[in-house]
């Protein structure tokens, strides 16, 4: 292979004032410009995607704070006891735990998550955590959409665990008796005996039976294809869409749609009564009840549901 020296290379260069861009150099410049342009275009697309393709933030919580502290009081109410004042016993579901404000049951974990943890005391009694948003006005604008979303790791506690991210219609406050007529949208529910399955449901109509088949409601489910949902964080989403000729609510896991309920699935009065108002958000981990059944010898206390973030957005 021929060799060359630095001096040879320097002698081959044009002298100052006579140096010109070769066609190869011009081609490289053009390619560089095209590459930069393409990267900028991708960046713009990425920003649009990050912003949610036209979604406008309404409300959110990232659960940042010191370990053991309570979630922001300006955003959340912490429910306690075994029922709402004047409401149905055992929260209307037969669940057996008592909700507390104890940091062992509900607190920030110091790593950017809200931690809800069922515990069992020496007598065998269960305690856990439940909270709900102060705001109760979340609904789509006329002709628009609402997106409610949370990134959650559900607990691997076994039989009797019942983890949920859900919404209740504002008319349920303050009497806490207008169920299911005021509407309930379960964004995600998981039974501890089914670590690979999550459920999404609209509750409406009358108790029991009626157009919404209560107490089951109008539900769908999604099963994990490989690892169970309890193995890591997943994003659970509801999109409530008033932009279509027929209003509908859609459920997603990690961006994959698995269930839809449309206004035409029930009569007009039932739909309007359940959806013609705002909603508030809830997170909780219950123990026992008519749906999950009781805990057994294999049920493990101390398994946490972790909520990394929750957000509400609107699109006109």
What is the first-to-last residue Cα distance?
68 Å
Largest sheet: 8 strands, antiparallel
| DSSP summary, beta strand count | 18
Helical region count?
3
> From N to C, what is the helix and strand string?
HHEEEEEEEEEEEEEEEEHEE
CATH top level class name of the largest domain: Mainly Beta
- Rg calculated over all Cα atoms: 27 Å
Summarize the structure in words.
With 316 residues, the protein is of the alpha+beta class. It folds into 2 domains: 23-53; 55-315, Jelly Rolls, CATH 2.60.120.200. 14% of the residues lie in helices and 34% in strands. The protein has helices at 6-12, 23-50, 268-275, and strands spanning 56-61, 76-78, 98-99, 106-108, 114-116, 119-120, 126-128, 130-133, 145-153, 161-169, 184-191, 197-203, 218-223, 234-241, 248-253, 256-262, 279-287, 305-315. Strands 1, 4, 5, 9, 14, 15, 16 and 18 form an 8-stranded antiparallel beta sheet that branches. Strands 2-8-17-10-11-12-13 form a 7-stranded antiparallel beta sheet, with no helix packed on it. A hairpin with a 5-residue loop joins strand 4 (106-108) and strand 5 (114-116). The longest helix is centred in the first third of the chain and has 28 residues, at 23-50. It is globular. 34% of the residues are buried. The model is unreliable at 1-23 and 29-52 (pLDDT under 50).
Topology, element by element:
Layout: H1 6-12, H2 23-50, E1 56-61, E2 76-78, E3 98-99, E4 106-108, E5 114-116, E6 119-120, E7 126-128, E8 130-133, E9 145-153, E10 161-169, E11 184-191, E12 197-203, E13 218-223, E14 234-241, E15 248-253, E16 256-262, H3 268-275, E17 279-287, E18 305-315
Parallel strand pairs: 3-7
Antiparallel strand pairs: 1-18, 2-8, 4-5, 5-18, 6-7, 8-17, 9-14, 9-18, 10-11, 10-17, 11-12, 12-13, 14-15, 15-16
């Amino acid at each position: 292979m021929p060799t060359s020296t630095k001096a040879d290379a320097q002698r081959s260069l044009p002298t100052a004032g006579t140096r010109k861009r070769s066609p190869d150099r011009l081609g490289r410049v053009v390619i560089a410009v095209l590459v930069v342009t393409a990267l900028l275009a991708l960046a713009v697309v990425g920003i649009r995607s990050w912003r949610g393709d036209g979604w406008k933030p309404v409300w959110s919580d990232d659960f940042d704070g010191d370990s053991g502290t309570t979630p922001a009081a300006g955003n959340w109410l912490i429910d306690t006891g075994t029922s709402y004042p004047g409401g149905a016993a055992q929260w209307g579901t037969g669940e057996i735990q008592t909700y507390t404000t104890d940091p062992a049951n509900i607190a920030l974990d110091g790593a950017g998550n809200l931690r809800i943890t069922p515990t069992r005391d020496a007598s065998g009694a269960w305690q856990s955590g439940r909270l709900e948003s102060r705001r109760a006005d979340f609904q789509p604008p006329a002709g628009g959409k609402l997106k409610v979303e949370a990134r959650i790791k559900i607990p691997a506690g076994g039989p009797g665990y019942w983890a949920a991210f859900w919404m209740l219609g504002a008319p349920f406050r303050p009497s806490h008796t207008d169920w299911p007529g005021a509407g309930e949208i379960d964004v995600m529910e998981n039974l501890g005996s089914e670590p690979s399955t999550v459920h999404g449901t609209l509750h409406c109509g009358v108790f029991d039976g009626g157009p919404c088949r209560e107490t089951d409601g109008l539900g769908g489910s999604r099963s994990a294809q490989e690892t169970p949902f309890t193995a890591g964080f997943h994003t659970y989403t509801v999109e409530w869409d008033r932009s279509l000729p027929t209003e509908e609510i859609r459920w997603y896991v990690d961006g994959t749609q698995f269930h839809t309920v449309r206004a035409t699935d029930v009569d007009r009065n039932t739909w309007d009564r359940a959806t013609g108002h705002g909603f508030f958000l809830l997170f909780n981990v219950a123990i026992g009840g008519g749906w999950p059944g009781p805990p057994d010898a294999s049920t493990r206390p101390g398994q946490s549901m972790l909520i990394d973030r929750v957000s509400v957005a609107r699109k006109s």
